[in-house]
Amino acid sequence: MTGTTPMRIGINTMSFMWRASAKQALETLAREGYRHFEVMAQPPHFDPMMEPTEARAFARFLHDAQLTVESINLPSLDQNLGSASRPMREYSIGLYQCLIDIAAIIGAQAIIVVTGRVNPLIAPPRADLESWFGDAFAHVLRAAERAGIQLLLENIPIGVFPTAAQMIAFADDVNSPNVGICYDIANAHFIGEDVAAGVHAVKSRLGIVHLSDTNRDRWRHDPVGQGSCDFAGFARALREIGYDKTSMLEIVAEQAIEQTLESHRRVAQWGWETPPV
Q1: Which domain holds residue 183?
Q2: CATH number of the domain residue 21 falls in
Q3: pLDDT at 2
Q4: What is the dihedral of CA 152, 164, 260, 64, to 10 degrees?
Q5: 103 and 146 in contact (C-beta within 8 Å)?
Q6: Helix 126-147 crosses helix 164-174 at what angle (to 10 degrees)?
């Protein structure tokens, strides 16, 4: 990628998660000209335990509409790979294994993996958290390797590995070509991380980036322009490492279409492609 080539934009369906099915959300966004997506795997939006027949029907819809789901994102609402409870870890492993099967059917290349959920009031010992998550992740990884699916670790503030340095150290220690990084600018900014430095830290395994805005006093995924994220520095760092994959707009907005389009227009000034319409 050259320094002047616009970076590709895709849309994450988080804003539609509680108000429409994934199919309805993609149909709506496709009318605005979008073709590349990340789907949130949250019932009733998109069931991570759907039957193969349902997954094949969704795959036919994508094919007929000429749309691509590049990645599937399982939110950390009802699962936790880093839980102190073995039954919860086993349940979470099962969810990811189901998603791997679905991803293979619908043609998704990757699954976003949040690195567990850490209690901010009274967290377990660090060594225990890393052991619980590492063991559970190993089970998920074996299934992903068999299916040829990428697992992209995401830097979430409440995760076991919230920083770029922690994620890349874990990924390098696992040392599998099926393990990459999803780097979220808002999550990084909220915890006080230099987002440009974070991009450079994870460059060897960077598989996707998430775009939304936030301030540092409250964790948000707001439309671009409503927070203090350094999009100019983020874009510059992505160009410096030769990033040529998709940047997913992952905003939470009441006026989902209007604010997605406005966010897209705003990031275009820093080197991302212009909106399709």
Answers
A1: 9-268
A2: 3.20.20.150
A3: 44
A4: -10
A5: no
A6: 60
